[in-house]
Specification:
The chain has 445 residues and is α/β, with parallel strands linked by helices. Among the domains are: 2-86 and 97-163, Rossmann fold; 168-249, no CATH class; 253-309. It is 51% helix and 15% strand. It contains 20 helices and 13 strands. It has a 6-stranded parallel β-sheet, sandwiched between helices. Strands 7, 8, 9 and 10 form a 4-stranded antiparallel β-sheet that branches. A 3-stranded antiparallel β-sheet has the order 11-12-13. Strand 5, helix 6 (146-157) and strand 6 form a beta-alpha-beta unit. Helix 1 (13-21) runs parallel beside helix 2 (39-53) and helix 4 runs antiparallel to helix 5. It is globular and about 55 Å long. It starts with a strand and ends in an 8-residue tail after the last helix. The relative contact order is 0.14. The protein binds 6-O-phosphono-alpha-D-glucopyranose and manganese (II) ion. 6-O-phosphono-alpha-D-glucopyranose binds at residues 144, 165-167, 265, 269, 298, 302.
Amino acid sequence: MKLTILGGGGFRVPLVYGALLSDHGEGRVTRVVLHDLDAGRLRAVTRVLAEQAAGVPDAPEVTATTDLDEALRGAAFVFSAIRVGGLRGRADDERVALAEGVLGQETVGAGGIAYGLRTVPVAVDIARRVARLAPNAWVINFTNPAGLVTEAMSRHLGDRVIGICDSPVGLGRRIARVLGADPAEAHVDYVGLNHLGWVRGLRVAGRDELPRLLADPALLGSFEEGRLFGADWLRSLGAVPNEYLHYYYFNRETVRAYREAGKTRGAFLLDQQTGFYERAGRPGAPALALWNRTRAEREATYMSENRRTAGAGEREADDLSGGYEKVALALMRAVARDERTTLILNVRNRSTLAVLDPEAVVEVPCTVDANGAHPVAADPLPGHAAGLVCAVKAVEREVLSAAGSGSRATAVKAFALHPLVDSVTVARRLVEAYTAVHPGLAYLR
Ligand code: G6P
Ligand code: MN
């Protein structure tokens, strides 16, 4: 079975390959094709994978190409993990937004809109090519902003594109752990959009254990989201939000922390990753050791500004192990082998959340089998969540519309309607500044 990874020179590819190496079962991936625009990045990552595969007799064969159509032909699964504009683009997204006093995170607020505006046209082109060249392939979208990008692709691929994120799984796992439950046995009632969801319940053997957590300040203080949001706010909400909601509920503090930080996350990663690719690309370099070291540093510093403003301390060791690859592999396995399982995924809403239309991509628990991912019935969103979800989905729709029409006025509307952009004037200036800095936004007229 052939797996194609778009963004195959990306830093997280070894995580995926590592997970593939531990799969020896029937119907496993036997061929991995890495596609990237940058041959140098492909070379460095290929070196890491070769070291990982050393001594594994049935290691999937790896090839690399810069030809997209060749990469797609014959693929059973396509993992799409691209970064349009690279990390320099991410750093620019942050810088431009912060200069206007608003958040520039890659998936939330103005930064997420800018990133979405330049990613959607590329993702749509990929979706069209997949539909033509590999019509039976399943596309697993990792590309951020994942919900928006999955929705853009679903207009061409229907339910054959499924978006993934590791933050809901991580959250569910942390809650289960503090409650002393086995994460594999717990049903996590998580609903919302990507990076905009809430855990409203955690059922173990039919019993909701979340009230026990919300009632116990010591338990609430013992995991990442509990420390980020604080016991009082979690009790007020009656739910545990995804960590990305920290940017909404504590917007003023996070914007300030990012403005005061020596380097934004994107700028830090740009330096860190440039160093890694340079070194790992040199002949004879210990590519896997370099990758491991770089990865540990990346994981340890994830959302560090948020934790700092909240006084939340360091991340826990268990939270440093990633999780993307596990979700992707579990999903691929369930589809390829028809092994029914439940995963939190980004799929079309159908009738799951009554406040959204059927085509809106949402992030909810789904049953997965050979026919794909089917959202599990969910209780209606409480008012506070419905408000945010509808507002942000409306913004996503303006982004999709601007990407389709090339209308600058629609792009301004997308920024202006976002709950974290506080003025139409600011929205206009953001569009000016983003189009000036990003060649990928030249289509906006
Ligand atoms: C989490 C998020 C992903 C995101 C990653 C960013 O896993 O769910 O959507 O890509 O963190 O981490 P980074 O190291 O790029 O800041
Ligand atoms: Mn994510």
